[in-house]
Write a structure and sequence with these properties.
It is built from nine helices and eleven strands. It is an alpha/beta fold. It has two domains: 52 residues, no CATH class; 187 residues, Rossmann fold. The strands form two sheets. Strands 7-6-5-8-9-11-10 form a seven-stranded mixed β-sheet, with helices on both faces. A four-stranded mixed β-sheet has the order 2-1-3-4. Helix 1 links the parallel strand 1 and strand 2. Bound molecules: S-adenosylmethionine. S-adenosylmethionine binds next to helix 4.
Length: 260
């Protein structure tokens, strides 16, 4: 992984960020299609931050853009219904959700669009920077819908298990979307998922997600929801109270008490 300023105007900020993230800084004129110095490069371009894989076959850039057409579509799709049902949307207003594995904030945004108050934990410093950048851009957007949704999202830049007590106070639901195991048909993996697989070797510590579920179940919340690939076993072989199943994704719901 490396960092690059898109233009000379971005070089000062790029230098500061490279130092903060301990990443090597590539020259502005390095061509990422032919670059062999890194497999992925975090590019700073004005107020945007995006991750670009290097090489000829690399998919397009990945960035956090809550106002994008893709995000708007997702907020209106069937995926929203499934996730809403899993967290218990409509049973309590407002519902406070801790997204313990925020990633690029897509699920958190869908939840906030469903009027949930969302606290997002993210521990990876590169993903965190992308998330911060996306939240900053959305907060200054003149799109009324977007800025209203964003106001219900708060970032907590820690490992979820180290969340301060005041942040977990009053949380109704803990939501987990840990890394999916590597899929054999990697060409079919969405570019965001390919990026996660590149950034983290999720096979390195398969018990990590299990431990996170065990931690989540120890917290004083009404329910814990885990997103899984539809055919994957439950985390930590813990049987959920019930499942909400979609075509490729399943939500395992662990109910402690009613949402009141
Ligand atoms: C598959 S991604 C989540 C994608 C996210 N649901 C979305 O919609 O973009 C998993 C993310 O969880 C983060 N993560 C995993 N374990 C964590 C933990 N214990 N605390 C905080 N973040 C964690 C990883 O760094 C990664 O960014």
């Amino acid at each position: 992984m490396a960092l690059q300023a898109a233009t000379t105007l971005d070089e000062v900020f790029a230098g500061q960020l490279a130092q903060r993230l301990c990443l090597p800084l590539l020259k502005t004129d390095v061509d990422l299609v032919h670059c062999t110095l890194a497999t992925a490069v975090l590019v700073i371009s004005g107020h945007s931050l995006y991750l670009q894989q290097t090489g000829r076959a690399a998919p397009g850039p990945v960035m956090v853009d809550f106002g994008s057409a893709g995000m708007r579509h997702r907020s209106r799709s069937g995926a929203r219904e499934l996730l809403g049902k899993a967290v218990g949307h409509g049973k309590k207003m407002p519902l406070k959700v801790l997204d313990a594995t925020a990633g690029l904030g897509t699920d958190a945004f869908v939840l906030a669009d469903l009027a949930c108050e969302v606290v997002m934990c993210e521990r990876n410093p590169v993903i965190l920077e992308m998330l911060r950048c996306g939240l900053r851009s959305a907060a200054v957007s003149d799109d009324v819908w977007l800025s209203a949704v964003i106001q219900r999202m708060r970032l907590c830049p820690v490992d979820a298990r180290q969340i301060p007590a005041e942040e977990i106070e009053g949380v109704d639901v803990i939501y987990l979307d840990p890394m999916f195991p590597q899929r054999a048909k990697s060409a079919a993996v969405r570019k965001e998922m390919a990026l996660f697989q590149l950034l983290f070797d999720c096979s390195a510590n398969p018990q990590d997600a299990d431990a996170l579920l065990v931690w989540a179940l120890e917290q004083d919340t009404a329910r814990v929801v885990v997103k899984r690939p539809s055919k994957a076993p439950s985390l930590a072989t813990l049987k959920p109270s019930h499942c909400i199943s979609g075509k490729s994704v399943r939500y395992d719901v662990y109910v402690h008490r009613k949402l009141l």
